[in-house]
Design brief:
Layout: H1 9-20, H2 26-33, H3 37-47, H4 50-61, E1 87-88, E2 91-92
Antiparallel strand pairs: 1-2
Helix pairs in contact: 1-3
């Protein structure tokens, strides 16, 4: 039995979501779920359509994606929208 078979469906959905995002590295998925890159690839292969999986693999392998922390530039910390405001006193500032 592989580790990917031990997850609940909601966990698999979250792993797929994190893997699909370019800015989420494999190391973050490993820290949260304990799955290696190879396990993530197996999960993606089992749960995506073949064409969607092929597009994802091409993007990850092509260098466009920043899925590995070692491949990232040092200035890429975290995405923050320019319209996002600071949260103060537990209230989100409105535009």
């Amino acid at each position: 039995m592989t580790k990917s078979e031990n997850f609940f469906p909601i966990d698999i959905d979250r792993i797929i979501e994190m893997a699909w995002e370019d800015r989420t590295p494999f190391e973050a998925i490993f820290a949260q779920f304990g799955t290696s890159e190879a396990d993530v690839i197996k999960i993606m292969r089992q749960n995506l359509k073949r064409s969607s999986f092929n597009l994802w693999r091409k993007r990850v392998n092509n260098g466009v994606s920043q899925k590995h922390l070692k491949k990232r530039s040092l200035d890429m910390n975290r995405f923050k929208c320019t319209l996002q405001r600071q949260i103060t006193i537990n209230k989100i500032s409105k535009r």
